[in-house]
Amino acid sequence: MEEQEFTPKIVGFLCNWCAYTAADTAGVSRLQMPPSVMVVRVMCSGRVDPLFVLSAFLRGGDGVLVAGCWPGQCHYQKGNFHARRRAAMLKSIFETLGLEMGDRFRLSWVSASEAPRFAEVAKGFTEEVKQLGPSPIWDEVFL
Amino acid sequence: MPEGLKINKGAQEAVRELLCSLLESGRVNGVLALGRTRGANGGVAYSLFTDSDAFVADGAALPFLPFMPANAGGLLSRLTLKGSLAGPVAAVVKPCELRAFIELVKRSQGSLDNLLLISSTCGGVYPLDVGANGGLEERLPRYWEAVKQGEVDSDVRPVCRACVHFVPENADITVALVGEEDLDTQCTLFLDTEKGAAFVKGLEGLQGTSLSGELETEPIQRSHSQRAAYREELFAGVEVGMQELIRTFGRCIGCHACKTVCPICYCSLCYFDSQDCEYLPEIYESELERKGGLRLPPNTVFFQLGRLAHVSVSCVGCGMCTDVCPADIPVSTIFSKVGTSVQALFDYQPGKDVTEEIPLMTFEEEELAQVAT
Amino acid sequence: MNDKGAILPAENGVEAAVVGWLKEALNKKVFDALLMPVQVPAGDSFAYLLLQNPALLENGSPLPPVMPVQGARAISRLTMRGNGSKRIAAVVRPCEARAAIELTKLEQAHLDNLWLITVDCPGVLPLSDYLDDPAAGAARFVEASQHWDRAPMRPVCQICHRFSMPASDLHVGTLGSADGAVFVIPGSPKGERVLESMDMPVDAALDDWAAQVKEMEEAQTERRQQAHADLRAGIAGPDGLLDVFSDCINCHNCQRVCPVCYCRQCYFESAALKLPPENYLTRSKRKGALRFPPDTLLFHIGRASHMILSCVSCGACEDACPMSIPVAQVFRLLADRAQETFGYVAGKSLDDPLPLVAYEMDEFHQVEQPYVEIYHKREVQDA
Questions:
Q1: What domains does chain A contain, in order, with CATH numbers?
Q2: Is the CB of C136 inside 8 Å of chain A's CB atoms?
Q3: CA–CA separation, B291 vs C49, rounded Å?
Q4: For residue B285, which of A124, C52, C376, C61 has the smallest C-alpha distance?
Q5: Chains contacting A (3 or more CB pairs within 8 Å)
Q6: Domain match, C169 and C273 both
Q7: Domain-embedded: residue C280
Q8: Closest approach of chain A CAs to the CA of C41, in angstroms?
């Protein structure tokens, strides 16, 4: 598979109130975005269970994006603070075990009115994941 | 300087006397401690003793035996899950078991009320298969010699040799063992809390002189450095990387014993045993199409990483998981290594302070800025 | 169906022959996928793989030296929620096939699109023995199995008398294989159709093989009965059983690896056994001490009462026990006796109803009689 043909599969957990709205607006406004993010709408970034992230990677996801409201602006006040801690924990686990997943996992804050920012995040992260190549466990049998 | 009680008897004898007196005087209604089972092999299990006879010279109780058939923190949770103790019960537990219990109390899985917690500085325990093959008895002399010198016998579990938390936190009474050269003739009990002191004060049958002393003696500090060095070595030996993880867990048979014996894994129905993991045939078939092959039962690596995500923040390195694994996988080494990193991230020490919140249950408004990009 | 079989040449040994045959079946699309043991990447164990890619068969082993996962568990995971659309051949040992049949009766597996393929089984090594030195273990196994020497095998394997054709769709008969060939024997119409599509005529006489199997079965049955007698003497009475389980640490591994124990949450881990502290203290006062956690014997006897009628004596429980308790030996004794009571053999046939589900109007009066005699007599007297 040539690199320029490789379209990463990035599972994107987007919070309903901010990130999903931004993504939706970006789409409606025809902002250029790669088709790599497979959107899963959650009510809050704090809904994202670390198991979702792990499952996405272990099923062959090339990248995982979690996007939510800026700290202090969470629709449910605290959800994204918890999301941040969980993301930090996951990254620590990945790093300690030498897993590439740490580089393929991104947490971003995107508010509802920041459609261009969402497009940037999607583009930028897609590029990063493209550089890393397809998931090394895409066809791993002994998981 | 903490208050202590020096008793002119060997540690084993002194502690038995203490527990015997506590029961006979009615100051406690029961004692949870290791004891002999009936097996010819010299089987050992934790028991809830209510008869003080167990603590006389050749009685069934074996406090401080270097063996851990179950993490007593989990047992204390079992004891107090459905309600606090109405009257006092003493428990003789190791530092990691105590820390595990504190972590469980934070999760509403137990209560500290009316528990008299007796612990000791710990020289480690032997693996389960040593006990299973009747090998404990013959190792005891060598074990205690090492403890007196402030060292850890080489047959003791690797995670114990790598343990830097062998001085108990949150005990009411701590028995000084590590580095105490006169263990056979003298014993110092540190009365860490007012509760501990109250239970012991004026206890009939317990003769000792008060003293003020430091628990952290020079041998303890030396042991700490040695164990810290071994810990670094042990953790460095863990093979990292996805392919290495797949190799390490290649032998895993998915029995989930590690989860069953883990004190922190208290869920009555684990996610990985739930309906969520009972997949439709189509799911298996579509993965099969993509990969050409998949391991059954599925989720071997997922279970390990998932369990890490759930417990690493509170892992106390008790080593039960490695002990119980039928496939000889060094689970505890991996979990302790990851646990240490995750705990350092949040500057958190599991089991240290029961009022300190579990890191994933709380947050600061300004922190971890580097995580979101 | 059992008196004729097809011939499968096996000059390079049984493993190579079976793997080659399966590869051919896969290529000819007789099956869509295979489920069989494959060596893991580190080479130190075997895992069940569901595979479509013939390249994965390179490290495949129809008769690996160990049974880390009971094959019926793999089959159950795959088919518990129904039959898939792919036709799958599962290569398993006879006890795994029997467990799969029991699980099907218990609605934990569906075998419509699955072919059970078994091989005459010499047993497996104890898992801990093998893990000490996998390469040596593998060699030891090959040597012993060639001569049907069960000495290095697990205790339950040493006295197994159901090592040959269970109710599988196809069975590879290797006992007494001469001229470098083995038999592939169909056990069902499904199995027959497979041999037809592979142009393997079912016309070879099985007399020799059948005779050897019978001879070995008889010898094994005798050994089994002796082992049972010896064991029973050792565990009779509450003392005996308490001694056997004295080392138990309540890890419940035995329950978890057992193919028949399929409950998501075992009764013995449920809220039913989580009691207030007063309960434990009262019980402790009665005896002076209470082993903690309590109910060790209750767990084992209780588990037996739940699953013993479907126990296939596979020995997974004993392999998994960290305290080397002879769980499988105790359970196989209980299983044989209990199943005998109902004239039932676990896993023998899908058509045999589960003993606790079926009943007759007129049976087991010896269990009810004392009650009827005592109270009926009284009623008659009082009338």
A1: 8-132 (3.40.50.960)
A2: no
A3: 11
A4: C52
A5: B, C
A6: no
A7: yes
A8: 8
Closest residue to C47, CB basis, from B83, B278, B295: B295
Same domain, C154 and C74: yes
Q: Answer for the pair B51, B18: CB distance below 8 angstroms, yes or no.
A: no
For C291, name the nearest residue in chain B, comparing CA atoms only: B47
DSSP run (H or E) holding C108? none
Select from C353, C376, C20, C15 the least CA-distant residue to C198: C20
Last residue of a domain, one of C207, C226, C255: C207
Contacts of B256 in chain C (CB under 8 A): 256
CB contact under 8 A, A142 and C56: no
Residue C169 covered by a domain: yes
Is C137 found in the same domain as C41? yes
Interface membership of B239 toward C (CB under 8 Å): no
Q: Which of B268, B325, B328 sits opposite C269 (nearest CB)?
A: B268
pLDDT in tens, chain B (373 residues): 678 889 998 898 899 999 999 999 999 999 999 998 876 566 889 999 999 999 988 888 999 999 999 999 999 999 999 999 999 999 999 999 999 999 999 999 999 999 999 999 999 999 998 888 888 889 999 999 999 999 999 999 999 999 999 999 899 999 999 999 999 999 999 999 999 999 998 887 777 888 887 888 899 999 999 999 999 999 999 999 999 999 999 999 999 999 999 999 999 999 999 999 999 999 999 999 999 999 999 999 999 999 999 999 999 999 999 999 999 999 999 999 999 999 999 999 999 999 999 999 999 999 999 999 9
Q: Tell me, what amino acid is at C249? A: I
As a whole number of angstroms, the distance between CA B171 and CA B165 comes to 13
Q: Is residue C223 part of a domain?
A: no
Rounded Cα–Cα distance for residues B317 and B103 (Å): 13
C-alpha–C-alpha distance, residues B186 and B180, integer Å: 9
Q: Which domain holds residue C298?
A: 237-341
Residues C103 and C165 in one domain: yes
Q: Quick one: closest CA in A to B306, which residue?
A: A51
3-state secondary structure of C1: coil
Q: What does pTM read for this prediction?
A: 0.94
HEC string of B34-94 equals EEECCCCCCCEEEEEECCHHHHCCCCCECCCCCECCCCHHHHHHHHHCCCCCCCCEEEECC
Residue A46, C-beta contacts closer than 8 angstroms, at least 6 positions apart: A68, A74, A76, A78, A79, A80, A81, A82, A83
**Chain B 32-61, CB below 8 Å of chain C: which residues?**
32, 35, 37-41, 43, 45-51, 53-54, 60
The DSSP result for B276-312, as a single string, is GG---HHHHHHHHHHHSEEEES--HHHHHHHHHHHHG
> Which residue type, as a one-letter code, is found at position B103?
E
Rounded to a whole number of angstroms, the distance from the CA of A116 to the nearest CA of chain B is 15
CB A33 within 8 A of CB A24: no
Q: C272 Cβ partners below 8 Å, 6+ apart?
A: none
pLDDT digits 0-9 by tens, A88-117: 999 999 999 999 999 999 999 999 999 999
Considering only CB atoms, C322 lies closest to which of B89, B247, B324, namely: B324
Q: Are residues C139 and C258 in the same domain?
A: no
C245 falls within a domain:
yes
Please say whether the beta carbons of B90 and B173 come within 8 A: no
Complex ipTM:
0.94
Distance separating alpha carbons of residues C67 and C84, to the nearest angstrom = 25
Tokens standing for C56? 């994965």
**Which residues, in sequence order, are bridge partners of residue C225?**
none
Domains contained in chain C, number: 2
C41 inside 8 A of chain A by CB: yes
The reply to whether A132 touches chain B by the CB within 8 Å rule is: no
Identify whether the C-beta of residue C23 lies closer than 8 Å to the C-beta of residue C36: no
- What string of DSSP letters covers B119-144? EE-----B-HHHHHTT-HHHHHHHHH
